[in-house]
Amino acid sequence: MSGSVHSTEKEPGPGHIESANKELGEEGTALGIITAHAGDEPVTDEEKKAVLRKIDWYLLPLMLLVFMIQTASSIFWWGYIVGVYPTTFIAMKFPAAKACACMM
Q1: Buried b / exposed e across 84-101, counting CB within 10 Å, b at 16+?
Q2: Which of 30, 10, 5, 8 is nearest to 20 (CA)?
Q3: How far apart are CA 17 and CA 29, in angstroms?
Q4: Residues 90, 96, 97, 101: what is their CA dihedral angle, to the nearest 10 degrees?
Q5: What does the pLDDT profile of the chain (104 residues) look like in tens digits?
Q6: C-alpha 64: how far from chain center
Q7: Which residues contact 71 (CB under 8 A, 6 or more apart)?
Q8: How many angstroms separate the CA atoms of 52 and 46, rounded?
Q9: How far apart are CA 63 and CA 45, in angstroms?
Q10: Other C-beta atoms lying within 10 Å of the C-beta of residue 36
């Protein structure tokens, strides 16, 4: 034995990027952008604006949603903290039937 491990999978050939790009679609995909700029060509201002626009339309709404969920959970947490003390006081001072009626 020579000690080398033989793989049953084939390595991607030189046309692998082009075939994957055809499967994924237009030049707007990340793979298309990488393929288009594989050389030393500088990125144009128009392409920079297009990438920034995609970031703005995809990432910023997601970040806003996460921020809103975080804020809502914080509000509920503070509401719980504020409400626990009167509820505990009522539960200790009154019978269970009256305490439950006050809490509803």
Answers
A1: eeeeeeeeeeeeeeebee
A2: 30
A3: 12
A4: 30
A5: 445 455 455 555 555 556 655 655 555 567 666 766 666 667 788 988 998 898 889 899 999 999 999 998 888 888 888 989 888 888 888 888 888 887 77
A6: 11
A7: none
A8: 10
A9: 26
A10: 13
Which amino acid belongs to residue 40? D
Strands (DSSP E) found in 1-104? none
Contact predicate 102/93, CB 8 Å: no
Contacts of 25 (CB under 8 A, 6+ apart): 32
What is the token pair recorded at 16? 């692998």
